[in-house]
Write a structure and sequence with these properties.
Blueprint (H helix, E strand, L loop, with lengths): L1 E4 L4 H17 L1 E6 L14 H11 L2 H15 L14 H15 L9 E6 L5 H8 L3 E3 L2 E2 L5 E2 L8 E4 L6 E4 L1 E6 L6 E4 L2 E4 L3 H9 L3 H9 L14 H18 L4 E6 L6 H13 L3 E5 L4 H10 L6 E5 L13 H15 L1
Parallel strand pairs: 1-14, 2-3, 2-12, 3-9, 4-9, 12-13, 13-14
Antiparallel strand pairs: 5-6, 7-8, 10-11
Length: 341
């Protein structure tokens, strides 16, 4: 793994930013978002997978109820109270806007103005950020009256035609893949349909009786953070379809994967990334550790991967790295955008 301290002298930083500008302007752009992207609204429970796996494997329904209830109350239900018009949501909107602004500047048809966003998050924060920026995106659903999900609905180009000349111009678009399912998903007769989740989450939140809570919670079309992740064949199928698409994107020539807020704790996703890094030397992974523990973890995971670039900010060697929050990420992306122009 190659490391770059962004708190360096002006000339060194200019070189770092210049290299990143070339990556973004000429690569197939992919983004991997983890649970930290949803902070501070939704909490990350670092030991949730271990605790839930123990409860499920032991058949202890009381412990399963307690862990799922805690997870639901802290990491799912708070999405109901988010004010997306408030200033504290600006960082999410800015992140999406700057990335798509960079894509908009592309003038070659060799690399399309498409960004693939893969996320393990169930919430609707990224959808809200895309829509508030008026960005076309594909989330796998087709139809208006009863939208149905299928991975066949990805891979489309968006173009606009001028009225007089008939000239076609490609428009920036985003493929959004919710690898672990979504609060918007509803499983019905072996298919996944779109559903507004407000009433469903409120109903679960108000339920205090153990059996009824677990019954209602199970209706969420999400993959729980535990080793035996699948509660249905439908979720299994959609998970593997999207994982296959993720793996295929990483095998493409000149591919850039920007990971933000992702701990790489998901073993399956990490294995796919590891294989792609080893087999596709034109793949570049950008990681941004939030803290010193993240940096040490990345150093261990990617110690043999020269095509992984790690960026952080450290005042000097006697101090811990700065917390690489979303506002710092946005500042860096804005520098890249200004340079691309």
């Amino acid at each position: 793994m190659q490391e770059f301290n962004l708190k360096c002298d002006k000339d060194a930083r200019a070189i770092i930013i210049g290299k990143m500008q070339k990556m973004f302007s000429s690569s197939n752009l992919n983004v991997l978002l983890g649970s930290a992207f949803s902070m501070p609204y939704l909490k990350t429970l670092k030991d949730i997978e271990k605790r839930l796996s123990v409860a499920m494997e032991s058949g202890d329904e009381k412990q399963e109820f307690e862990v799922k209830q805690e997870f639901f109350e802290q990491s799912i239900a708070p999405v109901l109270g988010i004010d997306f018009e408030a200033a504290d949501f600006d960082d999410k909107r800015t992140f999406v806007r700057v990335l798509t602004d960079i894509l908009e500047l592309r003038e070659t048809s060799i690399v399309h103005k498409i960004m693939n966003v893969f996320t393990t998050n169930y919430d609707n924060l990224i959808e809200k950020a895309l829509e508030m920026n008026h960005i076309d995106y594909f989330d796998g659903f087709e139809g208006r009256i009863k939208p149905r999900f299928s991975t066949a609905n990805y891979g489309k180009l968006v173009c606009k035609q001028t009225a007089l000349s008939g000239r076609l111009s490609e428009v920036v678009s985003v493929n959004l893949l919710k690898i672990h399912g979504s609060l918007y998903w509803k499983e019905e007769h072996g298919e996944i349909y779109f559903e507004d989740f407000g009433n469903k989450l409120t109903d679960i939140l108000l339920e205090t009786e153990q059996d009824e809570f677990l019954k209602k919670y199970k209706q969420l079309a999400i993959i729980n953070p535990e080793k035996n992740k699948f509660n249905s064949t439908v979720m299994n199928s959609n998970y593997y379809d999207q994982i296959r698409m993720f793996a295929n994107e990483l095998e493409r020539q000149n591919t850039l994967l920007l990971a933000f807020g992702f701990s790489f704790a998901d073993e399956h996703i990490l294995q796919i990334i590891g294989r792609a890094l080893a087999s596709n030397l034109t793949l570049t992974l950008l990681v941004f550790p939030y803290c010193e523990d993240d940096l040490n973890n990345f150093r261990e995971i990617f110690r043999f991967n020269n095509n992984v670039y790690c960026y952080y900010q450290r005042e000097d060697e006697t101090k811990q790295i700065d917390n690489f929050s979303l506002d710092k990420m946005n500042g860096l992306l804005t520098e890249i955008y200004n340079g691309v122009k």
